[in-house]
User: Fold this.
Amino acid sequence: MGEKQASLQDIVKNDYQEQTILNLNIPDNKIGIASDHRGFKLKQKLTKYLTKKGYTVIDYGCDDKASHDYPEYGFKLGKAVRDGKVEKGIAICGSGIGISIACNKVDKVRCAKVDNIKEVKYTRKDNDANIIAINGNMPLYRAKDITDVFLKTPFSNEERHKRRIEMLDNYKN
Assistant:
């Protein structure tokens, strides 16, 4: 007998981590993706995965495994999301932290560094994150699960969350 495949609803509800999500009928949206050299390999695999699912994936670099500075690519992805060139973004670097900081320097970007289903579920529902950042060493099955939940989980639209997002978006230093 085959192993039971978790549905997206099961994964979002129960925080599954051990199964890769397949065949989810994800709509055709433009998704931006960017990495430094340490995230390059995972970026290539996620791009292929998302393309097979029907997404249009726009790659904001880097283009090889040579050493690259993550801020350059985080800024490019952040600007693309801010300007509406892509709906959401996925940022990848060695830890996921540096590129998330770079993305968040762009106005109206809410990039969350995530490591699991629970974090990605709540950052979408509560923070309406428009970019996620992951580490380049993350296992592919987990990166796929996190990406699928990120792309399918809607913002809650609760007043308290909308108020907090407005505070973030309007903050001027």
Notes: The helical segments are 8-14, 40-52, 70-82, 97-104, 117-127, 140-152, 159-170.
